[in-house]
Design brief:
By secondary structure, this protein is an alpha+beta fold. It has helices at residues 2-9, 13-61, 66-71, 75-89, 121-124, 164-203, 209-225, 245-250, 267-270, 274-281, 320-358, 362-378, 382-387, 391-406, 421-424, 427-453, 485-488, 506-517, and strands at residues 93-97, 129-134, 139-148, 154-163, 229-233, 240-243, 289-293, 296-304, 312-318, 410-413, 459-467, 470-477, 520-525, 531-538. The strands form three sheets. It has a five-stranded antiparallel beta sheet. Residues 436-541 form the Histidine kinase domain.
């Protein structure tokens, strides 16, 4: 025990105070319980002794022949009966007397004939009496009962007693056992208190309450200030232990959670996106892996804390804006390449016109310049911007057309493609439209490029118009086609190798947007090969905002 206290002596004052309080509580509880038990034991033993005296006295008083012997004052018979009873029951004395209190028997024969010392008048009147009285043999617990003759009259009395010393010896033996039990209880209690104090010291790392409070405040501040989502799962229960505000925002959950290994919800109970739950069910390592959650691209990392039951730590970073910026950068690069190509072509045209002028063929030069000017105006973007009231969509289509030309492909915009200002809807509807068209056209261009390399294709057709309260987006290509159209819209599916970037997310993102907007997707083969994808989205007006994407 001394070594146990020595191990705790250098710990925190909280642990020492708890240990002292627990020990004091155990000792006080043991003392109180022992005292109550001792008092109850003493009372019980004395009551048992009194009941035994009454029972022995009644048995002797009602024994056959005793009343006749007492009435005849036959001392020999009475003394023999009294001593046989005393020897058989183990009581201290059995005294039989006449109604006047004169002893007819006594453990000491010399005292026969003397007057009984004690109260006997109630017994002479026919009552039973129990009392503690200092008689000739010492302080005793005694019972006095009447002896009745055949006619019911009291002919004598029987007094049976147990010396208080013998009762006290029994009480002492019982109290000794109680004291031993109390000592064992105190020792066990103190030992458990020491074990509990060591456990508290280990669990609190020897920190004081004010230090624990400060650490908790710091933890809360760090969790609130983090711009990275943090999600901690209990390894044994799979329940959420920690979920900061940024993780709740990225996963589309209502609020952050307090730490709880037992009462925290599971990912299923929180309604986390099935794609994330399926990925976490795979125990393989996760390092900077892009995963589509709702309509967000998240960068996921998983780390397991060391220990017998390690918690799983997940970090989430939003890559949606980065992907959008990357896409815009790629588009800008495509436009730059297209402008460089156009500048090269214009330089060639100007050189041809200049040469004709130097040769004196002014009419030919004029005709050539006018023809090229007509071609340039025919390929301008003014007409498309007039037909599409969504500037972002018009810019996207023009950019994709330039990218297609740069890759040796053709993006053909249908003659019926048109969208009025009323049909364009709000900013969210424009964002959804750009997401759907951009990903479908990108996928179609990739498919057409495969056919172009094989020398059998290289054409993508886009048509977008409003009909019956919906906007219909149709993208067709002359590529090799989709072997499994349903699987194509699942996250991670791709016909190409991943290379240095993540693939298989564009069509999945289209599926998320369509499901959120309550639209439909139809995929079927083209007339001369390839794939035709038709997306129908309900129109959104300015007075009817579109459903917001999951945030």
């Amino acid at each position: 025990m001394r070594s146990a206290f020595r191990g705790i002596r250098g710990g925190s004052s909280l642990v020492r105070r708890l240990l002292a309080l627990e020990i004091a509580t155990v000792v006080l509880a043991a003392v109180i319980a022992g005292g109550v038990s001792a008092w109850n034991t003493r009372e019980t033993i004395e009551h048992d002794a009194a009941d035994k005296m009454v029972a022995v006295a009644v048995a002797l008083a009602s024994s056959p022949g005793l009343a006749d012997a007492v009435a005849a004052r036959d001392v020999a018979r009475v003394q023999a009966a009294a001593e046989d009873t005393r020897a058989g029951t183990g009581v201290s004395f059995v005294t039989v007397m006449d109604p006047a209190g004169t002893r007819l028997s006594h453990p000491e024969p010399a005292r026969i004939g003397e007057t009984y010392q004690g109260t006997f008048l109630p017994a002479a009147a026919g009552e039973t009496l129990v009392e503690t009285f200092p008689g000739t043999l010492g302080l005793s617990v005694r019972a006095i009962v009447p002896v009745r003759g055949g006619d019911g009259a009291v002919v004598g009395m029987v007094a049976v007693g147990q010396l208080r010393v013998q009762v006290a010896d029994r009480i002492a033996r019982e109290l000794g056992i109680l004291a031993l039990a109390a000592a064992v209880a105190i020792a066990l209690g103190v030992g458990l208190a020491v074990v509990a104090a060591r456990r508290v010291k280990r669990d609190t790392l020897g920190l004081e309450p004010r230090e624990i409070t400060a650490l908790h405040r710091h933890h809360q501040a760090v969790m609130a200030a983090m711009r990275e989502g943090l999600l901690v799962l209990g390894a044994d229960s799979g329940r959420v232990v920690v979920l900061n505000a940024e993780a709740a925002r990225l996963l589309g959950l209502p609020a952050a959670l307090e730490a709880s290994h037992a009462a925290g919800p599971t990912l299923d109970e929180l309604g986390v996106d099935p794609a994330l739950r399926e990925r976490l069910a795979d125990p393989s390592p996760i390092t900077d892996e892009t995963i589509l959650v709702g309509e967000r691209l998240l960068l996921l990392n998983r780390t397991e804390l060391a220990g017998p039951a390690p918690d799983v730590v997940l970090t989430l970073r939003d890559r949606t804006e980065l992907e959008a910026m990357t896409r815009e950068l790629d588009d800008a690069r495509s436009v730059t390449r297209a402008l460089r190509f156009a500048a090269h072509e214009h330089a060639n045209h100007l050189q041809a016109v200049s040469t004709l002028i130097e040769l004196g063929a002014q009419d030919d030069a004029r005709e050539l310049a006018q023809r090229w000017s007509r071609d340039l105006l025919a390929t301008g973007d003014g007409e498309l911007r007039d037909r599409l009231a969504d500037p972002a969509l018009a810019a996207l289509v023009l950019d994709k057309a330039a990218d297609a030309r740069d890759r040796g492909l053709e993006l053909r915009v249908g003659e019926e493609t048109a969208l009025t200002a009323a049909e364009a809807g709000d900013g969210q509807a424009s964002t959804d439209r750009v997401t759907v068209v951009g990903n479908l056209v990108d996928n179609a261009l990739d498919a057409a490029l495969e056919s172009a390399h094989a020398g059998t294709g290289g054409l993508v057709e886009l048509d977008l118009h409003a009909a019956a309260g919906s906007e219909v987006i149709r993208v067709a290509d002359d590529g090799p086609g989709l072997a499994d159209p349903d699987a194509a819209f699942r996250p991670g599916w791709s016909t190409k190798s991943r290379g240095s970037g993540e693939r298989g997310l564009g069509l999945a993102l289209v599926r998320r947007v369509v499901d959120r907007r309550g639209g439909t997707i139809e995929v079927h083969p083209g007339g001369s090969g390839g794939t035709v994808v038709t997306v129908t989205l309900p129109l959104v007006t300015a007075a009817q905002p579109s459903p917001a994407a999951s945030r």
